[in-house]
Design goal:
Shape: elongated
Structural class: alpha+beta
CATH topology of one domain: Four Helix Bundle (Hemerythrin (Met), subunit A)
Low-confidence stretches: 1-8, 14-22, 117-127, 233-241, 779-787
Radius of gyration: 34 Å
Strand content: 5-15%
Number of helices: 28
Number of strands: 22
Helix content: 55-70%
Largest sheet: 7 strands, mixed
CATH architecture of one domain: Up-down Bundle
Strand order of the largest sheet: 10-22-21-20-11-18-19
Mean pLDDT: 77
């Protein structure tokens, strides 16, 4: 008996703790222990003791529940907890303690689930504040001294050292500077600013030290504005109404009316309590949170962290999606798009020389060139006397030749082939690294931030999930942004946006529909906070974007966004089904109880049966939706990785085909014929065997996953066309041997075959990467580039 008294005392103390702390987890513990203890006492025949425990459990729930209800009523909200409070009070009044204990456990479980589901991450944007410069180097008549950045005044002359963040907005006073503006624009490429041009705070000095004339104080500078935007946008976000409370708007009044009529008609308060007991909205208190929490669990298994049930509910209602470009729709790293050689040189040699020199450079473009050379298994030389000028490029000695790679000096005369490269870069939105050997232009490497292979598939799935409007928001120039938008079939693009511009677009779109913003950079954090739901690419994105987001993709795969939306839509649909189904069953039971045919305790047990049914239905949200994403078998995934790696190795074959076509167009002589022969040799020895292996190994392995052989029929047709064009090139080579060279009447058709083959191959590679290779897990850091 002493043990029982001790346990009862502990329950009372825990009850007081709940009253003061409102702790949902503690409430769940108390009510569960009370129900179990009462059940144990009843089993051994101690009925009075069982009632005591059950009553304590009921009281433990009713006290905090009353506080929750009054807090909601003061705000003008009628919540489902009101019916639960009335039912708990009714069971105590008519001494139906078991029914009260059961309702108490239901209420506590629902609140605990909801609390876990709605816990949101801090929006203080700690990373933004940590990155903000706190000091500046002020140049005075006696030298340079370090002062707090808050003390900088307009007109002060500052010195920004290499690797430092610009403390305030200002104007360049030095000859030229190289800056990394990715924190503000999201673009990975460095920019150059000349004397007299403006520089914004928050950018990184990627070159040598330079002087800056302050044009704004710290408070009025760009970076401080970004922090304020993010904080204001997060603060103004409207709270999301619980799914359960939307149903409560009509269910609660209906319940009270039925309970009142039952009391008046039967003259017994027990009937009214019975109605309240079976009307206890456990389908709302339990089923909806269970479905939402199940959706959260399902998403987390795919590497999608959804910070709260409210975010998941909102994600299930999204109709407009806004996406950042760099790092979200594109890879976020420059990749080699093409290698162009001067007449008399080969693209592979141009890439080898450029990569040999760039081995010692930390520049983002240099790393892309070196990585590409390694993937193509080129043997690099060790350079000597290497020097690098920030913003210009590197120079040194490679294999006894003086080599430089980087920008061309302004006003330098370019040969005709180089002018064509400039036009190509403009059309493709690419950067150009020019190679010179012994002072003469030798070639060029075009670099571009490629579209993610999984992006097209992701956008198709998002449209299928019900998103009707897809827009791109980017700080990049309009030309490359428009190119990406055209490739992906977006509904619109807003380019050259500042962080404030992105926030303005997000706010405008929120006026029209439920809006989600997806980004990965510091500059995206304010827009993520301003959207109904912010989604951060957390695998490689900034901490600030992850802090500001409601959803974080922890894997470097944008297609997980489509998975998250599909899971949210499905979880919300199941939650609504469970809630509505449970309420309809509760309404039927309420009708029976109103006529006195259902005692409160039996009604509580019946309500438990209803709860079990709706919870089991809600747990369907945990199941995998097989239609959402085809799953590769281990053998098929191994084949995908193999052929994806072969795509890397075959890039030089595509370059050779394009180079041969250019030679035939420019000067159809012996050199052009030799280039065609070399390209055909690469086709027959490397590319055509690759295509044949895909046809007979990869496609049959993918067919079951994709729905049968017809799913790969279009790609098989591309194989046929590639083989046909290769045979046509072979015929031209045979004719040239007979005639002792290329005849004039061959040139048009041969040129057409080569350019057509290059186009078909590049398109075919992209289609395979989007449709097939994107099904596999992403490559490791520094993996395969785009074509």
């Amino acid at each position: 008996m002493d043990r029982v008294t001790t346990l009862a005392a502990r329950l009372r103390r825990l009850t007081l703790k709940i009253v003061h702390a409102h702790h949902e987890a503690t409430l769940l513990t108390v009510t569960t222990v009370a129900l179990a203890a009462g059940g144990a006492a009843w089993t051994v025949g101690a009925g009075s003791l069982a009632d005591l425990f059950w009553a304590l459990g009921t009281v433990a729930a009713v006290v905090p529940a009353v506080r929750w209800v009054f807090a909601a009523l003061r705000k003008g909200d009628v919540r489902v907890d009101l019916v639960a409070v009335l039912a708990l009070g009714g069971t105590l009044a008519v001494q139906e303690y078991l029914a009260g204990a059961l309702i108490a456990v239901m209420l506590a479980t629902g609140r605990a689930l909801e609390s876990a589901a709605q816990r949101r991450a801090s929006r203080d944007l700690r990373a933004l504040l940590e990155r903000a410069p706190r000091s500046a180097r002020l140049r005075t008549a006696t030298g340079v001294r370090v002062v707090p950045s808050a003390e900088v005044r307009v007109g002060d002359l500052l010195v920004v050292a290499p690797g430092e963040v610009v403390p305030v907005d200002g104007r360049v006073e030095s000859a030229s500077v190289v800056l990394d503006e990715s924190a503000l624009t999201g673009e990975p490429l460095q920019t150059e600013r000349s004397r007299g041009e403006t520089v914004r705070s928050g950018v990184l000095n990627a070159g040598t030290a330079f002087e800056l004339r302050a044009t704004a104080t710290e408070r009025d500078s760009t970076y401080a504005g970004i922090v304020r935007l993010a904080q204001e946008a997060g603060a103004e976000s409207a709270p999301v109404v619980r799914l359960a409370d939307r149903f409560a708007a009509w269910f609660v009044p209906l319940t009270l009316v039925m309970a009142g009529l039952a009391w008046l008609a039967g003259g017994s308060a027990v009937r009214a309590v019975a109605v309240l007991v079976v009307a206890t909205p456990c389908p709302l208190l339990l089923a909806a949170p269970v479905a939402i929490v199940s959706g959260l669990s399902r998403a987390s298994r795919l590497g999608v962290v959804v910070r709260g049930g409210a975010a998941l509910e909102t994600l299930g209602r999204v109709r407009t999606l806004l996406l950042d470009k760099t790092g979200t729709l594109t890879a976020g790293r420059p990749r080699v798009l093409d290698v162009i050689a001067a007449p008399g040189r080969r693209p592979a040699e141009v890439l080898r020389l450029a990569a040999s020199l760039d081995q010692y450079s930390p520049h983002v473009l240099a790393r892309a060139i070196v990585d590409t050379a390694h993937r193509r298994e080129l043997v690099l030389s060790v350079p000597a006397d290497v020097t690098e000028e920030p913003g210009r490029g590197a120079s040194g000695t490679v294999d006894g030749h003086r080599v430089s790679i980087g920008r061309v000096a302004a006003g330098e005369t370019r040969p005709p082939w180089a002018r064509a490269v400039g036009n190509r870069a403009l059309l493709d939105g690419a950067a150009v690294a020019w190679l010179t050997v012994d002072g003469r232009p030798a070639g060029a490497v075009l670099l571009q931030d490629p579209v993610r292979p999984d992006a097209p598939r992701t956008l198709r799935h998002l449209r299928a999930a019900g998103i009707g409007r897809l827009l791109m928001l980017t700080g990049d120039r309009a030309e490359p942004a428009g190119e990406v938008a055209a490739v992906l079939g977006l509904d619109g693009v807003c380019a050259e946006l500042s962080p404030a511009g992105k926030v303005a677009v997000v706010r405008a779109e929120r006026e029209r529909a439920v809006t989600v913003m997806v980004g990965d950079g510091v500059n995206d954090a304010p827009a993520l906070a301003a959207a109904d739901v912010g989604v951060a690419m957390g695998a490689r994105g900034s901490t600030a974007s992850s802090e500001a987001a409601d959803v974080v993709l922890t894997t470097d795969r944008v297609d997980r966004l489509a998975d998250a939306v599909s899971i949210a839509v499905r979880a919300r649909r199941i939650a609504v089904q469970s809630a509505l189904g449970g309420m309809l069953m509760s309404l039927a039971a309420m009708g029976v109880a109103a006529f006195g045919l259902l005692p409160p305790a039996v009604g509580a047990l019946l309500q438990e049966g209803i709860d079990v049914a709706v919870i089991l239905n809600a747990l369907r949200a945990l199941r995998v939706d097989r239609a959402a994403r085809p799953a590769l078998t281990p053998a098929a995934e191994a084949l995908v990785r193999r052929f994806a790696a072969e795509h890397d190795d075959l890039q030089d074959v595509l370059d050779a085909v394009r180079g041969a076509a250019d030679r035939v167009s420019d000067s159809p002589g012996p050199e052009a014929l030799a280039a065609v022969e070399e390209a055909y040799k690469l086709l027959t020895e490397r590319l055509l065997p690759h295509e044949d292996a895909e046809e007979h190994e990869l496609y049959p392995a993918l067919a079951p996953t994709l729905g049968g052989p017809e799913a790969t029929a279009t790609m098989s047709r591309a194989h046929t066309e590639i083989a046909r064009l290769a045979r046509r090139v072979a015929t031209h080579l045979a004719l040239s041997r007979t005639a002792g060279g290329l005849a004039p009447d061959q040139l048009d058709d041969l040129r057409s075959c080569l350019y057509g083959l290059n186009t078909v191959l590049r398109l075919h590679f992209v289609q395979e990467e989007e449709n097939y290779f994107s099904l596999a897990s992403p490559p490791a850091e520094g993996g395969r580039p785009g074509p």
